[in-house]
Design a protein that fits this description.
The chain is of the alpha/beta class. It folds into three domains: 328 residues, 3-Layer(aba) Sandwich (Rossmann fold); 142 residues, Rossmann fold (3-Layer(aba) Sandwich); 102 residues, ANL, C-terminal domain (GMP Synthetase, Chain A, domain 3), CATH 3.30.300.30. Helix content is 31%, strand content 25%.
């Protein structure tokens, strides 16, 4: 079998108290999965039937490889499900959103009724600025309630939102604005991080130069005295919302109308704009929030991600709000003002579902058990991880120290492209450290060789999804060839780009990327984007970057740089290049190491062979190098 390898597997496992499974929405995994396999379309129709629709669907699914349509010809608005149906019910005065600022004294709370009213006003404010169904709005904001209000307002009027993480620099923001053709940019004067102000508006000012589609910049002013708005393009967030009409009828959307574009890194070329549509994405995120997170009406749900990543879209906003959850958001980072801040927040707000990244868990491990032990974490019911594989050591610490050896651990595997959870250990089932778990009911996943044949337990191969699912991406913006590649690498299967192995019980362990994506602290970065930033510096003739294992971040970036004539290697130049990448892309992309080299391993066609660099760096066999130029 080509493309496979043997992997030694651990046998250790834990099983939560049986009451978890008995009281869960999903119940027995085996029974739920059988229900799905017996009649997949009925399975998804039953889930969708729990939500509100203006017009029902003609068919649950239409599939013509590689294109899918879900809930065809149905009419809906996702915000009617996230807001209106709760605001018109006994949940109207339930807390929808809790926000905690960096200053632990600063808090805001919005009920479903209050959030609904603010979203309607801001939706009308966007309409007053000329935003119409199908227009694209770019959000570049800190994690404040207005961020959630703005993205829901876009969805309410049928505008396509494109959120850019507030840690990206001006060049990265400009590329995303231009590719999406954004009409409006919504930002804030500043964000706060580790006690310092991050000047977001300044970055936007630079990013909108040479962005001809941008007509207006909406600015949330947080500082005092208020930032002065100079140009005719700039308007104040609060002022336009206050001036808008209070009631906004939801735009009636077709099931397959686009909901948002979210950029994720590609291995070559610019970032890919992943397009998700209204109905399938809504059903997938609602289902996984309710049935996989087992969301109950009295839960307080804290996903520590940012809306700039798919995790924030799916499990801060759309899934939890569709399920009627209470959602906690905060600007704080895990180690400021001290490493106990997250645990104080869990205690203060009685968080019951905590969802974070393995990077953060490893950071907590480094600080030791004393910080969580200072707080009462008894409110926690479920703890989850997302963004990269949760290594067995981190699982053990998380399960025992944070979960008190009682909370189920949901190590979730999914992607920007999948929109929702795909593989995990469902609530109450046996957990195996190092293994994400099994495909959730509704998903058909497998580990295969390069020909698409299933591999034996203990044999590594490629992770694939064999059947379409509702929240799957529908396109790569302006790049159909790139979209088709997901389904053509191995004929008729969605190829995730990850290496994996399964055991005798069908549990899947994800081993890492099979391509040139680097996952730093749970964030996907393409080698091409970082290399492009390096080469844009006047001293750099050529560059290649790789991901190296890192105890804290999962992977760290190492760069290999060929200098132009007239420039000499120095520590000062390394610092300059690191800063240059920071300003071009953002802090997340900064190389932790830079080596100055005279040449790079390339194929005869000129493609840099990064795996050769990586193999040399890690002291392992580089495999077939017959295509090398030298």
């Amino acid at each position: 079998m080509s493309g496979t390898f043997d992997v030694p597997l651990e046998k250790k496992s834990y099983r939560p108290d049986p009451s978890y499974r008995d009281q869960s929405w999903l119940g027995s995994y085996d029974e739920a999965y059988k229900r799905f396999l017996d009649d997949p379309e009925k399975f998804w129709a039953d889930i969708a039937g729990e939500l509100d629709w203006y017009r029902p669907w003609d068919a649950v699914r239409e599939w013509e490889l590689p294109y899918a349509r879900w809930f065809t010809n149905a009419k809906l608005n996702i915000t009617a499900n996230c807001l209106d149906r709760h605001a018109a019910s006994e949940r109207r005065n339930k807390v929808a959103l809790i926000w905690r600022g960096e200053d632990e004294e600063v808090e805001r709370v919005l009920t479903y009724r209050q959030l609904h009213r603010k979203v309607m006003r801001f939706a009308n404010a966007l309409r007053d600025l000329g935003v119409r169904k199908g227009d694209t709005v770019c959000l570049y904001m800190p994690l404040v309630p207005e961020h959630i209000i703005a993205l829901l307002a876009c969805a309410r009027i049928g505008a396509v939102h494109s959120i850019v993480y507030g840690g990206f620099g001006a060049a990265a923001l400009n590329a995303r604005i231009r590719d999406a053709g954004a009409k409006i940019v919504i930002t804030a004067d500043v964000g706060y991080r580790r006690g310092k102000r991050v000047a977001l508006k300044t970055i936007v000012d630079e990013a909108v130069v040479n962005a001809p589609t941008v007509e207006k910049i909406v600015v949330l002013r947080r500082t005092s005295p208020s930032l002065e708005l100079f140009s005719e393009m700039e308007v104040d967030f609060e002022e336009i919302m206050e001036a808008a009409d209070p009631y906004c009828e939801p735009e009636v959307m077709d099931a397959e109308d686009p909901l948002f574009i979210l950029y994720t890194s590609g291995t070559t070329g610019p970032p890919k704009g992943i397009v998700h549509t209204c109905a399938g994405y809504m059903v997938g995120t609602y289902y996984t929030t309710k049935y996989i997170f087992d969301m109950k009406d009295n839960d307080v749900h804290w996903c520590t991600a940012d809306p700039g990543w798919i995790t924030g879209h799916s499990y801060i906003v759309y899934g939890p709000l569709a399920a009627g959850a209470t959602v906690l958001i905060t600007e704080v980072v895990p180690d400021y003002p001290d490493p106990g801040i997250f645990w104080r927040i869990v205690e203060d707000f009685g968080v019951t579902i905590f969802y974070t990244a393995p990077t953060a868990i490893r950071m907590f491990m480094r600080f030791g058990e004393e910080w969580p032990q200072k707080c009462n974490l008894d409110s926690l019911r479920l703890i989850g991880s997302v963004g990269e594989p949760l290594n067995p050591e981190a699982f053990e610490w998380y399960y025992h120290t944070i979960g008190g050896a009682r909370c189920p651990v949901l190590d979730t595997w999914w992607q920007t492209e999948t929109g929702m959870h795909m593989i995990t250990t469902t609530v109450g089932e046996k957990m195996k450290p190092g293994f994400a778990g099994r495909p959730i009911p509704g998903v058909v996943a497998d580990v295969v060789d390069s020909e698409g044949a299933s591999v034996a337990p203990g044999t590594g191969g490629l992770l694939v999804i064999k059947e379409p699912w509702p929240s799957m991406m529908r396109a790569v913006h302006n790049n159909d060839e790139r979209y088709r590649k997901y389904w053509s690498t191995i004929d008729s299967y969605y190829t995730a780009g990850d290496l994996a192995v399964k055991d005798e019980d069908g549990y899947i362990m994800v081993l890492g990327r099979s391509d040139d994506i680097i996952i730093v602290a749970g964030h996907n970065l393409g080698t091409a984007e970082v290399e492009s930033a390096l080469v844009s510096h006047e001293a750099v003739a050529e560059s290649a970057v790789i991901g190296k294992p890192d105890v804290m971040k999962g992977q760290a970036i190492k760069a290999f740089v060929i200098l132009r004539e007239g420039f000499k290697p120095s520590e000062k130049l390394k610092s300059e290049l690191t800063y240059h990448v920071r300003m071009s892309i953002g802090p997340i992309a900064m190389p932790s190491e830079i080596d100055f080299v005279d040449s790079l391993p390339k194929t005869r066609s000129g493609k840099i062979m990064r795996r050769v660099l990586k193999a040399k760096e890690l002291g392992i066999d580089p495999g077939d190098i017959s295509t090398l130029e030298e």
